[in-house]
């Protein structure tokens, strides 16, 4: 899909991709999973070579940030599908020239949709592609900040659940407690994975912002430079906050695993007590169950109650000892 945005905020729809020239007032060309015809059209009207998804997925700095024939070629990994069970990273390409901005992406992104909703229209004209890029980067940073806030809120809930003490903490059956801990472990792991993906996205934006400010210093409007400086500070603060959340994820991960170990130790303790308590009665019963001819207790009038009493005492005494030791 190809969308062309004018300087005045309007949208241009090309009628013929094969021969139609590009209007001069177009400042942003946005390609989403472009078809070969759309790629050919954009390359023809702009004189640029569009990167493929393999090119955008390169992790070397020289591949993500470079200058070709006066155009700034940039790429960054952005997180998407955050609201699903499996958030993913998708590469996004940015090509900035003096006249316009070209973006290449292969997934619909919420940040782009927010930018289009809030900043594209007759009331919000953009004078240049650099202004478009600055506004788009702001929308991306805002989206990443929202995701970090959601992660922090979820971690706070998990922290209160794990570390709650006193009368407010409910005691659950072992099976239910194990299920709760397993669920907490999965949520902590998902938050940690998402936080790592956001760190990659922040790193990509943190590289793009100064790169544009330095290489476009001669032709970028002062207002855009101010926006880029603000973005640099925002990205730095979000990176610090993401590092804080990473530490909290590690704390909750260790705490959850510790509680799971405690639950497992309690189960082993119960099994140990049961097995130890059951050994003496078994010994007494097996001893008096032997078929020897001469056993003095066989002729006793109270031999059977005596045997039952020994079995009961042999079970009660270990339980009492474990109780005094504080095992349960």
Into which percentage range does the β-strand content fall? Answer: 5-15%
Structural class: alpha+beta
Report the C-alpha radius of gyration, rounded.
Answer: 34 Å
- The total beta strand count reads 7
Overall tally of domains: 2
Tally of individual helices: 8
Shape: rod-shaped
Strand order of the largest sheet: 2-1-3-7-6-5-4
Distance between the termini: 67 Å
Average pLDDT, all residues: 83
Q: TL;DR of this structure?
A:
The protein has 328 residues and is of the alpha+beta class. It contains eight helices and seven strands; from the N terminus they run βββαααββββααααα.
Indicate the topology:
Elements: E1 2-6, E2 11-12, E3 26-32, H1 36-46, H2 53-56, H3 61-64, E4 65-68, E5 71-80, E6 88-96, E7 101-105, H4 110-119, H5 129-163, H6 174-215, H7 222-287, H8 303-324
Parallel strand pairs: 3-7
Antiparallel strand pairs: 1-2, 1-3, 4-5, 5-6, 6-7
Question: Could you describe the 3D structure shown?
Answer:
- This protein is an alpha+beta fold and 328 residues long.
- It folds into two domains: 2-264, no CATH class; 266-324, Methane Monooxygenase Hydroxylase, Chain G, domain 1 (Up-down Bundle), CATH 1.20.58.
- Helices cover 59% and strands 13% of the residues.
- It contains eight helices and seven strands, in the order βββαααββββααααα.
- The chain has helices at 36-46, 53-56, 61-64, 110-119, 129-163, 174-215, 222-287, 303-324; strands at residues 2-6, 11-12, 26-32, 65-68, 71-80, 88-96, 101-105.
- Strands 2-1-3-7-6-5-4 form a seven-stranded mixed sheet, sandwiched between helices.
- A hairpin with a 7-residue loop joins β5 and β6.
- α4 (110-119) crosses α5, α5 runs antiparallel to α6 (174-215) and α5 (129-163) runs parallel beside α7.
- The mean pLDDT is 83.
